[in-house]
């Protein structure tokens, strides 16, 4: 293949054809000279297929962060290369720059660096490395064909984890948890608490917490202290069906659910509870069980990273069956879904009594701001009237679903996107404080 230089040489030769007595013969001579130079340059170009490729660098990133992946080019031959290296990734990987110009001497090694700034969660793979070697004159080049380039390209995948922007609420929630545990206030007796220790009575203690037997043994007033029960079970169930693809603000509903699930799991981990995760639509997409301690958050973010909304309707029969199969003890089931009458009325409500009879259920849904905008539309014309009626109908359908869920003993949370993770965790802390987990 040739570059732009033969065209320039041909143009210069063509401009001198008119001075020759036989212009057509002179034109043929120009063509022969240009073709000969290109052929000679092509013959002197080394085969780029002999270069050995390998990779190093970032394998895990959080969404919004930037990492670097190094492509190492090794030249085992005695030839020198002038290379154009094109390191292609999936578009959502945000790879820059697209190509690199390097000079690779005989038996040498060169490293080119590609910056990765992903725009989506999940696995972002490298697609193909294309090598183009230029001749010493720059008139021709040799390029590795696609099939050979695919075989040469070293496999590399960067896993993009969720942002977890809701971690900004952690200090506030952990402070509430410490207060609940009694680390900053006097521990008191309450429903769902377990015995912690004995200590001397101080002014302000509840007299009902006095341990009279211990008082008699010590000849001093002793009270019992209590703490919220630990080792409770919290199950985050993410609906990844078609309703999770609806955009609330700038992001799909599933992104907000992931943020809320991560914050809830982190706080529950600090509270000493066990957190499980199930993500499903028409089939189970991800599942994390028996997670405690330091392994909890890494396992959760790794399982949540490749999740994306499906186009199928969620099979709530499958979801409920999976929860009942894996959770034998009474647990808090937090179902992240949409309060959509069609999906919940036909899918969830018929099977919900089985779940609510054995577990404490919280349905966490995002408030759709579009409904508020439709209801708040001033009826200035016919279009505005129809918009307002549509908003009122949607809100009534939503309220009807909430009432149906409440009749089954299910708690429903309907919150705006900006406070959704915080509100979900607040409900968990409230249930923990009142001993209803």
TrEMBL record:
Pfam families: DUF58 (PF01882). Residues 198-374 form the DUF58 domain. It comes from the Bacteria. The chain crosses the membrane at residues 20-44. Keywords: Membrane, Transmembrane, Transmembrane helix. This is DUF58 domain-containing protein. It comes from Hamadaea flava.
């Amino acid at each position: 293949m040739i570059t732009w230089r033969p065209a320039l040489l041909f143009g210069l030769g063509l401009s001198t054809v008119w001075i020759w007595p036989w212009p057509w013969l002179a034109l043929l001579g120009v063509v022969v000279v240009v073709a000969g130079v290109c052929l000679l340059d092509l013959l002197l170009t080394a085969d780029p297929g002999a270069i050995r490729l390998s990779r190093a660098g970032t394998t895990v990133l959080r969404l919004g962060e930037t990492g670097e992946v190094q492509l190492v080019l090794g030249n085992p031959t005695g030839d020198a290369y002038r290379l154009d290296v094109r390191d292609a990734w999936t578009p959502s990987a945000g790879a820059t720059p697209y190509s690199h110009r390097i000079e690779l001497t005989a038996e040498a090694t060169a490293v080119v660096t590609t910056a990765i700034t992903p725009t989506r969660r999940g696995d972002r793979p490298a697609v193909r490395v294309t090598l183009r070697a230029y001749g010493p004159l720059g008139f021709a080049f040799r390029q590795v064909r696609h099939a050979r380039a695919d075989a040469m390209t070293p496999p590399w995948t960067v896993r993009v984890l969720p942002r977890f922007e809701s971690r900004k609420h952690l200090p506030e929630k952990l402070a509430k948890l410490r207060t609940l545990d009694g680390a900053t206030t006097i521990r008191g007796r309450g429903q769902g608490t377990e015995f912690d220790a004995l200590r001397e009575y101080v002014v302000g203690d509840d007299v009902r917490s006095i341990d009279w037997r211990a008082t008699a043994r010590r000849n001093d007033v002793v009270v019992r202290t209590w703490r919220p029960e630990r080792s409770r079970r919290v199950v985050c169930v993410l609906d990844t069906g078609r309703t999770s693809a609806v955009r609330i603000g700038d992001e799909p509903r599933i992104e907000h659910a992931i943020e809320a699930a991560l914050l809830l799991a982190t706080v529950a981990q600090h509270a000493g509870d066990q957190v499980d995760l199930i993500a499903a639509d028409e089939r189970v997409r991800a599942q994390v069980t028996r997670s405690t301690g330091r392994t909890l958050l890494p396992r959760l973010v790794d399982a949540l990273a490749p999740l994306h909304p499906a186009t199928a309707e969620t099979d709530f029969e499958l979801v409920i069956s999976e929860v009942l199969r894996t959770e034998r003890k009474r647990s808090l089931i937090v179902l992240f879904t949409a309060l959509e009458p069609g999906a919940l009325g036909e899918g969830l409500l018929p099977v919900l009594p089985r779940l609510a009879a054995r577990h404490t259920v919280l349905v966490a849904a995002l408030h759709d701001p579009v409904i508020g905008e439709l209801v708040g539309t001033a009826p200035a014309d016919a279009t505005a009237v129809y918009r307002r009626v549509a908003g009122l109908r949607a809100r009534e359908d939503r309220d009807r679903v909430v009432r149906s869920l409440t009749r089954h003993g299910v708690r429903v949370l309907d919150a705006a996107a900006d406070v959704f993770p915080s509100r979900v965790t607040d409900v968990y802390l409230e249930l923990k404080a009142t001993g209803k987990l």
